[in-house]
TrEMBL record:
Top-level taxon of the source organism: Eukaryota
Protein name, as recorded: Uncharacterized protein
Ranges annotated as biased composition (Polar residues): 1-16
Provenance organism: Henosepilachna vigintioctopunctata
Region spans: Disordered: 1-20
Length: 190
């Protein structure tokens, strides 16, 4: 009798204590989550009233009017959203977009000009040193593969046909004008 009684008492004590501790904790946790409803006082709060609103069909949800975001109607969720990147960053991004756009287009135009200058200099170099313009095909490929981090090199488009055209139409014409001016000034001296 006595050993069975001992076993019964200890086992029952253990299960009772287990039951006493665990179930209430679970219940309170679940209840806390379920009971969060939208509170009208939030609409009067200076921090929330400019962007927070109710969701008509769901009292457990709240809505950010600024970005049309639906979230759980929990104060922690609302506070987290208010300080989140999605809520704060976007207005800043739209303010910055114009100036960054202008900066970017400036950068693009200066880089495009630098690419053109590089094309002209390479052409001038080849012409000056009497190097065949067919080497441009290989030189451009070589530069692009060797300097992959340069936008200027990346944007340059210089093959032998274009190089020849640049020399004929740009450099030769410029040289002609330069020579003509020099000849005139020389002629005026004589
Ligand atoms: Zn928001």
């Amino acid at each position: 009798m006595s050993p069975t009684c001992k076993v019964d008492s200890t086992s029952s004590q253990l299960t009772e204590s287990d039951l006493d501790i665990t179930p209430p904790r679970k219940i309170t946790k679940i209840n806390k989550h379920r009971q969060q409803k939208f509170r009208d006082t939030w609409l009067k709060n200076d921090d929330y009233k400019q962007w927070l609103s109710k969701v008509p069909d769901d009292q457990y949800k709240a809505k950010c009017r600024t970005w049309n975001v639906i979230m759980n109607a929990e104060l922690t969720v609302i506070k987290n959203h208010m300080t989140s990147k999605t809520h704060l960053r976007k207005p800043l991004a739209s303010q910055q977009s114009i100036s960054t756009f202008i900066k970017k287009t400036d950068e693009i135009s200066t880089k495009a000009k630098a690419s053109q200058a590089l094309e002209l200099k390479l052409c001038g170099f080849l012409a000056e040193h009497n190097i065949s313009f067919t080497t441009l095909d290989h030189l451009t490929t070589l530069l692009k593969s060797s300097v992959p981090d340069s936008e200027i090199v990346k944007n340059m488009q210089m093959k032998s046909t274009k190089g020849t055209a640049i020399v004929k139409n740009v450099i030769v014409e410029a040289e002609k004008e330069y020579l003509e001016k020099n000849c005139r000034s020389v002629g005026s001296v004589f």
